[in-house]
Amino acid sequence: MESWNDVAVAAIPGEPPQLRLYTSVLDAVTPVPTQAQYRMYVCGITPYDATHLGHAATYVAFDLVNRQLRDAGGQVRYVQNVTDIDDPLLERAERDGVDWQSLAVAQTELFREDMQALRVIPPDHYIGAVESMNIVSEAVIELRERGAAYQLDDGTGDYYHDIRSIPNFGYVSRYDEATMLEFFAERGGDPDRAGKRHRLDPLLWRGRREGEPYWASSLGAGRPGWHVECAAIALKYLGTTIDVQGGGSDLRFPHHEYSNAHAEVITGEAPFAGHFTQAGMIQLDGEKMSKSKGNLEFVSRLRERGVDPMAIRLGILAGHYRADRDWSEALLAQAQERLDSWRSAITRGGAGSEIVIAQMRERLADDLDTPSVLRLIDDWATDEVDGGGGRSIEAAVDGLLGVKL
């Protein structure tokens, strides 16, 4: 599957501090070890409602991680998947009376266009589930051979991962069993499925069903579960361990917990990721955005209205990436005013930018404190005496924040 076009990242003089990033394993902000190459996997979309602002906020957040690691002189190997076959996609296609493959292709292309407009650095490998059937089925087979996977005896051909085979199960999310069961039921799990060994056992392979797409494998015809898809793709393209596993906060459990568990059982190495990091949710006018409520705000619709994508990006950056936060027309208007102010300010000459850029780096290194950085640039932009060095600030805002002035 093709990614989107590369984004030029401005080089900035000076030495940044070490990035400190939140990880759910410790429920704390900890340093990302300095190294020459970083491996980052960010869980991708299921392409049937791309790209709402919740999607955009997540991928902008991990674009910031990418930029800070690059600014520190590291190379970043970045992989993202596309879950281009799953129940929600099939359900949406049936509801709308369209072919599921056509829906997936159209929504994936729209997502690419939105990411390009928002200046998100593309992944080195952008991998669909459909093109990964062999590596996913091989991962399930490996789990079975290690005694960690079992097939139900109800004739469906479904395979599950026995969580009793998972050392320290639950350490990624740090939730108790009652909370895990609640989220599992809400987020695509099947705790009450008859024949399972444990209510929290996740689906690995769904056997062929009448009227559903399927693929041949030595497991029998079928298609993969969601969590093992990400584990298999990450292992294939990044290796046995990675530095950052990213996604939205709703992925903390079950998705990050299970994909991590699958990978660790397959490789025998732990932890799979140095940091498990999750971005917060976006609300619309004070109410949680959801498909069921029909109150999703889409990047493409904002762009169709003529909204500058850099204003959208600044609106996202106005809140801390881990916070559940609100989106509104007032926020968007404030972001556009900020963008106009910064663009006007960069035309000024003079010096004095080194201190501002150093402060930007310090605040971004502290778990991506973008609200503080935006206020810092606001102060610089309105300082008629010491607000020089416009072109240096322009490069820093571009390289570190991804905002083109």
Let me know the number of strands: 14
| Distance from first to last alpha carbon | 31 Å
Strand content bin: 15-25%
Could you give the order of strands across the largest sheet?
A: 5-4-3-10-11
Order of helices and strands: EEEHEHHEHEEHEEHEHEEEHHEHHHH
Helix content: 40-55%
Judged by helices, strands and strand pairing, the structural class is alpha/beta
If you compute it from the alpha carbons, what radius of gyration comes out, rounded to the nearest whole angstrom? 22 Å
Shape: globular
Average pLDDT rating:
94
**Uncertain ranges:** none
Describe this protein's structure.
Strand 6 and strand 7 form a beta hairpin. Helices cover 42% and strands 15% of the residues. The longest helix is centred in the first third of the chain and has 19 residues, at 53-71. The chain has a five-stranded parallel beta sheet with strand order 5-4-3-10-11, sandwiched between helices. Strands 6-7-8-9 form a four-stranded antiparallel beta sheet. Strands 13-12-14 form a three-stranded mixed beta sheet. The chain is globular and about 70 Å long. The chain is built from 13 helices and 14 strands. The chain has 405 residues and is an alpha/beta fold. The mean pLDDT is 94.
